[in-house]
Amino acid sequence: MIVTGCLGAKEGVVARVHPSVLAITGPHDTPGVMQAVHEHLPRPHDPYTDLLPPQGIKLTPKHYAYLKISEGCNHRCTFCIIPSMRGDLVSRPIGEVVQEAENLVNAGVRELLVVSQDTSAYGVDVKYRTGFVNGKPVKTRMLDLCRALGGLGAWVRLHYVYPYPHVDDVIPLMAGGAILPYLDVPFQHASPRILKLMKRPASAEKVLERVRKWRSICPDITVRSTFITGFPGETEAEFEELLAFLQQARLDRVGCFAYSPVEGAAANDLPDPVPEEVKEERKRRFMLVQQEISRSKLEAKVGRTLKVLVDEPGVGRSSADAPDIDGVVRFEGGKAGEFVNVIIDRADEHDLFGRIE
Ligand code: SF4
Fold it and tell me: Ligand 1 centroid to 87 CA: how many Å?
C-alpha cells in the first residue's frame, strides 16, 4: 500500500500507525507516487511493445524523466504489432503534458525525454485541437509542444520521430537551442522495394537530402536511427543499397536489428525469408561500417568543449547521447544531475573521454 495526500506530509504519523505501508508521500507528489509504484511493482518488460528500457523507469535517476505524449499508432508497418495491441494514436492533451513536464522540472528533472509510438504524429487524432498551457491557447502539435517544452529550462530530447515532412519544422528550434539538437528517427531501410514491403515512407535520396538540409540548418544535430537487416525478401543487392546509404548519410547514432518475426505481424506472410545466418552476417557487416563512421564522428569532437549532464560521478551525457541507447562522456568528478563543461581529449567508437573545464 502507498499512502499519499496531506497526512503523508507529516513525517512518521502514518508509518507509526501502519508500519507495513510501502511508501508515504505528501500531496500532489505524482513523481513520488510513481517512483514508489515502480520500485515495488515493476511490470514485466515486453521487448516488442515497450518504449522504455527493460529496467523501466524504476532506475531513472532523478535528473531525467520520460515524458509520454501519446499512445498507439496510425501506421501499419508490416513488421510491427504495436497498433494491433495498443490501437490507433491517442494524443494526451497538450496542457496536461506540459503541466506534467513543468512538475518534473520543478522536482529537479534536468532532461525530458519525449516518447510515444509516433512523436511526430502528436495531435493528428484530435485534428491539432487547441488546448491551454498556462492560460494561453496552444495547438496539440509537435512543433507547438516543442516550443512549450523548450521554455521550461530543461533539456528536451525527441524520440521515435516518424519521418513526416513537418519534422523539418522543429530543426530551427534545435538550431536556436530551445530543444536539444537530437533527432531519433527510425529509417529502417534504404531500398525502396523493402521500404514498400515494410509499409514505410520515403526514398533513400529524399532522406539523404533531408538529413543534409537538417545539418545545414543545425550543424550540431545528432541523428539517431534504427535499421533492420534480413527483412523477408531482402536481396544482397538491396542490402548493399542500405550499406551505401549508411556511408552517404553518415548518421551519428545507429542501432541495427536482424529481422525477427513477431507473432501476428503481417511481414510473416511475405515470401523469401532470409536465412538466420545471413540476417546476422548482414547485421555484422552493417555494424562494422557504422563503427567506422561513429568513430570518425566522435574523433571530430576531440578538442571541443561540450556541455554534459552528469549521470553519476565520472559519467555524463552530451546533447548527442540519450540514456541507455547512446554512448557517454567520461571524466573525473562531477555530481549527478549537474551540468559541467567537459574538454574532450579522446574518443573511441562509442564514448568520449575528457576533463571538466
Ligand atoms: S510507426 Fe512505429 S509503432 Fe507505428 S506501426 Fe510503424 S513501427 Fe509500429
Answer: 11
* Distance, CA of 193 to CA of 190 (rounded, Å): 9
76 CA to centre of ligand 1 in angstroms: 6
**pLDDT tens track for 65-108:** 999 999 999 999 999 999 998 899 999 999 999 999 999 999 89
Helix residue ranges per DSSP H, 107-175: 142-150, 171-175
Alpha helices in 232-308 (DSSP H): 236-249, 276-299
As beta bridge partners, residue 330 has: 315, 353
| Burial bucket for residue 86 (CB in 10 Å: 0-12, 13-18, 19+) | middle
More confident residue, 49 or 244: 244
66 close to ligand 1 (CB < 6 Angstrom) = no
Grid cell for residue 84: 494491433
CA distance 122 to 68: 11
- Which residue among 68, 69, 118, 189 is best mutated to probe the pocket of ligand 1, counting the most ligand atoms within 8 A of its Cβ? 118
Q: How many CB atoms lie within 10 A of CB 207?
A: 21
CA 169 – CA 98 distance, rounded (Å): 20
Of the candidates 81, 68, 158, 77, the residue with the CA atom closest to the CA atom of residue 120: 158
Q: Would you state the torsion angle of the CA atoms of residues 148, 76, 272, 237, taken in this order, to the nearest 10 degrees?
A: -40
Distance, CA of 256 to CA of 229 (rounded, Å): 7
Rounded Cα–Cα distance for residues 115 and 108 (Å): 19
274 in Cβ contact with 231 (< 8 Å) = yes
Rg (CA), the chain: 22
pLDDT in tens, 104-135: 999 899 999 999 999 999 999 999 999 999 89
